[in-house]
Amino acid sequence: MASSFSRILSSKRKIQILSLVGGSVTAGFLLHRDHVSAGGVPVRRSYPASAEYPDLRKHNNCMASHLTPAIYAKLCDKATPNGYTLDQAIQTGVDNPGHPFIKTVGMVAGDEESYEVFADLLNPVIKERHNGYDPCTMKHPTDLDSSKIHSGNFDAKYVLSSRVRTGRSIRGLSLPPACTRAERREVERVVVEALAGLKDDLAGKYFSLTQMTDEEQQQLIDDHFLFDKPVSPLLTCAGMARDWPDARGIWHNNDKTFLIWINEEDHTRVISMEKGGNMKRVFERFCKGLKEVERLIQERGWEFMWSEKLGYILTCPSNLGTGLRAGVHVKLPRLSKDPRLNTILNNLRLQKRGTGGVDTAAVGGVFDISNLDRLGLSEVQLVQTVIDGVNYLIECEKKLEKGQDIKVPPPLKYFK
Amino acid sequence: MLNSPQIRQQGSTMPFGNTHNQMKMKYTSEQEYPDLSKHNNHMAKILTPAMYERLRSKQTPSGFTLDDVIQTGVDNPGHPFIMTVGCVAGDEETYEVFKELLDPVIEDRHGGYKPSDKHKTDLNPSNLKGGDDLDSNYVLSSRVRTGRSVRGFCLPPHCSRGERRAVEKLSIEALASLSGDLKGKYYALKNMTEAEQQQLIDDHFLFDKPVSPLLLASGMGRDWPDARGIWHNDNKTFLVWVNEEDHLRVISMQKGGNMKEVFDRFCTGLTKIETLFKERSHAFMWNEHLGYVLTCPSNLGTGLRAGVHVKLPNMSKHAKFEEVLKKLRLQKRGTGGVDTAAVGGVFDISNADRLGFSEVELVQMVVDGVKLLVEMEKKLEKGQSIDDIMPAQK
C-alpha cells in the first residue's frame, strides 16, 4: 500500500512542481474555499493585506528583517498545494520577537513546496542566515564520503564526547508545523519499518513515546537520549507540538551509538555519538547509517526531500543544506577565560554552547563546540572544519597550560 | 482600510496547519483519529471515531474545522480530578456546524442542559435581592465578570490579525463614548509605558500573555500583544479586556462586600456598551438557546462569574466545606484565580454555573451563599456547630 501511495504522491508532486514553475499566477496554489451562505454572499469578512500585515517594529529575527509590506501583500493569498499559508509560516516569528543579541530565523516551512511558494521571503532569509548563500544562483554540495576525513581522533584528555547530527524529511509528507496526525503517523511507520532493516552494529530498537514503559523511559533519560515535548515558544508557536506524543519516538542501535528521533522538530533527526574523541569513527557511522536508511526507504518507494539548491530540506531554514551539526564536549578551562575565545571561534567558523545544548551555559569549563555553518558546504567539509578547529583549540589550551601565549587564527575563507 | 468586505481566496489563518481539510480527506478517518486513550476532558469523553468521521469533512463558513475545535483537547489530556472542556469555538457558527459534538459537551458541562433548552438573560439589577450587606470583615472584595463576542468576527482561536484589530478598533470607539462614572481610558498592550504597565499590575488589572497550554494550544496567543488592551474607568471599578481569551471580558469590581453595587454597575455598563456597539451596527453574539456565545463552551449562557474574596479559615477546614459549596452551587479558587491555591484562609468563592440560569439568578446564588458561609464561619469561630444551618441542594 505504501508504494502505491508514494507513486500517487510522486506523480502529484510532478504536477504541482510544474504548476509552481509555470509563472507567478500558478506559482502558489490559490486556495479556493467555498464559504458562501445560501444567498451567495461571502460570510467571512476579509481584509486587505495592509490590515493583516503583522506589527514587527519590536522584532529582531530574519523573517522580520525581510518581510516588507509589499512581499506580504504578494504572498499572503498564496498557499502551497497542501494548503500551508504565509501566515502560518511566519507565525513563530510574529509571536517571538527575538532577542537583541540572538537573531532567530522567525519562520518555518510546512512542506517542501513552502520553499518555492514563499521563495520571495525565504530566499533573502536564507541568504542572511547562511552567510550570503543565494538559492537562486548557487548549488549546495552533498558529500557523505567519510573516508575523506583526516586527523579526526582527538586527545581524550580534552574531548569528552563526539557527536554528529542532522535531519531528514520524507518527501511527499508535510513537515511538523503542518502535518496532520495521519501524515505524522505515516512518517513514523515509514521510518520505523526502514530502521527495522538495519543490521550488525546498526541493529536496534524503536521506543514509541506513547507506549514506552516507565523503565524504558528512565533508561532513555539516563542515556541522555530522551527528548521531551518542546517547551520553547519558538517551536510551539510553529505548531510542532500538536498531538504530542502521538507518533513520536526514539530509535537507537543496541550499542547506543546511533540514534534517531522521529517527529520532533523534523521528520527525523539522525545522531551518531560516542564518548571520547574519535570524531572520524562517529562520522563514519553517521554516513553509513544515513546511507543505509536512505536505501531502505527507497526500497519501499520513498525518498528524502533534497534539492540541488537547498540540499536536504528541513523544517527550519537554518538547517538547510547539510542540516549538520558536528560537535564535541571539550574541556577548555583556561581558554574559556580568555577574552579572545569568541573571536577565535568565529574565525574557525565554530560556535560554543553549554553542555545542555543550545541556550544553556557552559559548566566547569566544558563547552559544546560545533560548526556554525549548514548550507553551502558539504558534510565532509563541515566535519573537517570542526576537527581542524577543535584541534586548534586544544593546542591553545595546551599552550595556556604551559604559560605560553596563543594566537588568534585568521578567519577561514568561506564559499563566498 | 477596514471597511468593505471582499472575497479573498485565501487559506484560513489558523496558525497550526489543521485547516487544509481537503488534503486531509485523502486519509481515512481512522488514520486521522486522535489517540484519546489517556485523556480526561469533555471532548475526549464525547468524541467517537464514528462522530469524527461524520464531522471531519465539515467546516464553518470561515474555515474552522473539527480538528481546530478539538486541538486543545488533544494536546491537553487533562487532569484526573479536574475536567476541562477540551474544545473551543472559532466563530459563532462552530456551535451549529459541530453541534453533534458540542451539544453533548455542553450538556455534560452545564448540568444536563439540553439542545432544546432555552437560556434566559436577565441583566436587570433591581431584580437582585439584598447583596449590599455582605460583612466586610470577611468579604474583602466583590467582583462580577463576563465576556462578549462581536457578531461577524471570528473568535480568538481563529481570527486573523485584521479581524482582531477591527474588534479592538470598534471596542475603543464604543468605550470612548462611556461617560459619568464609567468614563475611562484604553491602554493598548503594545503601546503601554512602563509606568502605565506597573500601575495596571498594582491594580491587579493587567492581563498577561496566556501561558496555560489549554489556551495556547487553541491558538489564542497568536500575534501577542497585537490588538490586545485594557480599558478601565477612572474610578477603577469597571474594566474591559480586549482580545484576551474572548473578544471582550467585562469586569466590575470593588473592595468590600457590596455585591449589589458591583452588579448594578456591571449591568449598567454592559447594557451601555451593547447599545454603543449597536449604534455602530454591531451586535453581540447571542441566541435563545446558548445565550451569549463565547470562545469556550464553559462560558456560554451568561459567561458570568460573580465572586468574592472571603476569609474562611475555619470553614475551609471543616469536613463539610466541599459539600456546602456543592449544595450552594458555588466553587472555590485561590485568590490568584483559577488553578491557584488559597492563601491565609482567603478564598475566591463564585458561582459554578454559567448556562441555564440568568445573570440575576447566579448573582443571587452567590450573595445568598456567601452570606451563609460567613454565618457558618462566625459560628465556627465561636466553637458552635453548623449542622442546623446546612443548606438544601439548590
TrEMBL record, chain A:
Provide the residue positions that the database annotates as binding ATP: 161-165, 224, 269, 325-329, 353-358
| The family this protein is said to belong to | Belongs to the ATP:guanido phosphotransferase family.
Query: Its GO biological process terms?
Result: phosphocreatine biosynthetic process
Q: Give the organism's phylogenetic lineage.
A: Eukaryota, Metazoa, Chordata, Craniata, Vertebrata
Q: Which terms are listed as keywords in the entry?
A: ATP-binding, Kinase, Membrane, Mitochondrion, Mitochondrion inner membrane, Nucleotide-binding, Transferase, Transit peptide
Q: Which InterPro entries match?
A: ATP-guanido_PTrfase, ATP-guanido_PTrfase_AS, ATP-guanido_PTrfase_cat, ATP-guanido_PTrfase_N, ATP-guanido_PTrfase_N_sf, Gln_synth/guanido_kin_cat_dom
Primary site of residence: mitochondrion
Which residue range or ranges hold the Phosphagen kinase N-terminal domain? 44-131
Could you tell me what this protein is called?
Creatine kinase U-type, mitochondrial
Membrane topology, from the record: Peripheral membrane protein
Keyword Transcription in annotation: no
Q: Where are its TM segments located?
A: none
- Note the Pfam families from the entry: ATP-gua_Ptrans, ATP-gua_PtransN
Automatic annotation (TrEMBL), chain B:
Catalytic reaction(s) noted: creatine + ATP = N-phosphocreatine + ADP + H(+)
Species of provenance: Perca flavescens (American yellow perch)
State the superkingdom: Eukaryota
Give residues annotated as binding ATP: 141-145, 204, 249, 305-309, 333-338
GO CC terms: extracellular space
Question: Family per UniProt?
Answer: Belongs to the ATP:guanido phosphotransferase family.
Q: What is its EC number?
A: 2.7.3.2
Extract the InterPro entries matched here.
ATP-guanido_PTrfase (IPR000749), ATP-guanido_PTrfase_AS (IPR022415), ATP-guanido_PTrfase_cat (IPR022414), ATP-guanido_PTrfase_N (IPR022413), ATP-guanido_PTrfase_N_sf (IPR036802), Gln_synth/guanido_kin_cat_dom (IPR014746)
Question: Domain named Phosphagen kinase C-terminal: which ranges?
Answer: 138-380
Q: Where is this region: Disordered?
A: 1-20, 109-130
Q: Which UniProt keywords apply?
A: ATP-binding, Kinase, Nucleotide-binding, Transferase
GO MF annotation terms: ATP binding; creatine kinase activity
Which segments constitute the Phosphagen kinase N-terminal domain? 24-111
Pfam families the UniProt entry points to = ATP-gua_Ptrans, ATP-gua_PtransN
Biased amino acid composition, Basic and acidic residues: 109-122
Protein's name in the database = creatine kinase
Tell me, which GO biological process terms does this entry list? phosphocreatine biosynthetic process
